[in-house]
Design a protein that fits this description.
Helix content is 69%, strand content 6%. It folds into two domains: 92 residues, Winged helix-like DNA-binding domain superfamily/Winged helix DNA-binding domain (Arc Repressor Mutant, subunit A); 148 residues, Four Helix Bundle (Hemerythrin (Met), subunit A) (Up-down Bundle). It starts with a helix and ends with a strand. By secondary structure, the chain is mostly helical. Strand 2 and strand 3 form a beta hairpin. The strands form two sheets. Strands 1-3-2 form a three-stranded antiparallel beta sheet. It has a two-stranded parallel sheet with strand order 4-5. It is globular.
């Protein structure tokens, strides 16, 4: 568990990270600029570069992203429709807060689909776990260097690879669209070294079960793993009350 001082430091660093938006590079294809803006803002919300409750200004975002206000306005409208951004009368536009009920629903979807993907992958003859082993090595390195962003990226890649091995990579994309609230909770928990160690150890057990085609063990491991972040929800809410809502 992070100390109160660590919690305050994380809240300050998250607020400062509101500035960490990547300029949008206009596509030479038919991709609309507003789509690129939308994708960048969704990523920033997911990764806590735009903190829960952060104030959003069309002009400010346009300047940071190096685009005009029109695609920003269009992207914000989509974010409002998706429930990721809220317009508060007489206050302005703000990033939505984390709702634990939404996190629970995302957990249900992720767990259900990943268990199914694991079972299908186990049914394949001699599942190739080489890429999964390499991702475990990347997580170990990220843990030692306290590189939380790299750890999260390797974590996501590991779970994505399980879906790829099942032959249903598109199912992971469906999970991604659903689990943004869950991801924000997961990112909030990452500065805890003990939690990172436990996640790596669970990942290793999951990979071992897949290599051994042990569907029974894999189901139990994935279910426990998927529920870990939600179990920490109440404690994280107590640490960062400004990031959560009912």
């Amino acid at each position: 568990m992070n100390s109160p001082e660590e919690a305050r430091t994380w809240e300050r660093s998250s607020a400062d990270s509101d500035l960490a938006l990547s300029p949008v590079v206009r596509s030479r294809t038919r991709t609309r600029t507003s789509d690129l803006v939308y994708d960048e803002l969704v990523s920033a919300i997911r990764e806590l570069r735009l903190a829960p409750g952060a104030s959003l200004s069309e002009t400010d975002l346009a300047n940071r992203l190096h685009v005009s206000r029109t695609p920003v306005r269009e992207a914000l409208a989509r974010l409002v429709d998706a429930g990721l951004v809220h317009v508060v009368p007489q206050v302005g536009t703000r990033v939505g807060l984390i709702r634990l009920r939404d996190v629970e629903e995302a957990r249900f979807v992720r767990e259900s689909l990943e268990v199914a993907a694991f079972e299908v992958a186990c049914a394949e003859p001699a599942p190739d776990v080489t890429a999964l082993r390499e991702l475990l090595d990347r997580q170990e390195h990220s843990y030692r260097t306290e590189d939380y962003a790299a750890f999260f990226a390797a974590d996501e890649a590991l779970h994505s690879e399980i879906f790829s091995l099942s032959g249903y990579p598109g199912a992971w994309q469906a999970v991604q669209r659903m689990k943004l609230q869950l991801d924000r909770l997961r990112r909030l928990a990452l500065p805890d070294a003990d939690a990172m160690r436990e996640l790596i150890d669970e990942h290793r057990l999951i990979v071992d079960a897949l290599e051994n085609a042990d569907a029974t063990a894999g189901r139990a491991l994935i279910s426990r793993h998927a529920r870990r972040a939600l179990e920490r929800g109440p404690a994280l809410r107590a640490q960062y009350p400004g990031y959560f809502t009912e």
